[in-house]
Amino acid sequence: MTDAPLPRPTPVPAFAPALEAIDVAKTFRPDSGGEPVEVLHGISLTVTPGEMVSVVGPSGSGKSTLLYCLAGLERPSRGGVRIGGVDTTALSARRLAQLRRSSIGFVFQSYNLIPSLTAAQNVALPARLARRAVAPDEVVEALAAVGLAELADAKPPSMSGGQQQRVAIARALFARPGILFADEPTGALDAAAGRVVLDLLRGVRDAGSAVLMVTHDLESAARADRAIVIRDGRVHQELAAPTAEQLFDAVLAAR
Ligand code: ADP
Ligand code: MG
To answer: Which of 28-37, 50-59, 178-187 has the lowest mean pLDDT?
Structure first.
């Protein structure tokens, strides 16, 4: 079976958003039957290249579901999502997987590394699965960018949580995605390790990629350029250059 190249985005201006979501809704239908539950009720947002946006809100407000819908890990029930000008909701599963591999990075709270592989092997794995030739220098460079060149041959179980998350970031950035999604990236880390991870995410933004980070840590969220407060599956408030105190008040008001 031959695959044509990914559909080219319809001509987009140079300032095309890294991410554009329009009226995204998500309904879960229980396998066991029962009433469908709408968790996202129509969310619109835009993230521009070189911008870091945090998503905050009470537990259960739909932050992770939103992130998965935007990142192409879940199909929205309604609405449109464009990544670098490509409408992901119009893609087949196969094309969507291709786009994820080439243009989207993910970082999860739980790192999701393969414990039996070295740090270098973990970083190279997605590229290998995509049948792309990987030069060893490239991998060392990616690990050096997160300060872990000397741990290239170490395996995750021998590393601290902070080190594992940095390997996960190196892996996510290996394909040079236009946007990096992170779901509670510091959620399992102590404060010092969390700051290192946040510094790395800020560096991703400074290098010109977009970053969308879900977090309940308001100190972390305040380090983004903009914060979106979610309440019950809707955008409750948007704050530019927020302080942790402003976010605390906004999340409290969203309960
Ligand atoms: P948050 O990340 O803000 O804590 P989530 O997006 O994880 O919230 O969840 C929002 C709501 O959606 C919760 O009520 C949760 O139980 C529900 N939910 C999430 N995933 C599923 C699923 N796969 N099936 C059914 N309900 C789900
Ligand atoms: Mg969550």
So the answer is: 28-37
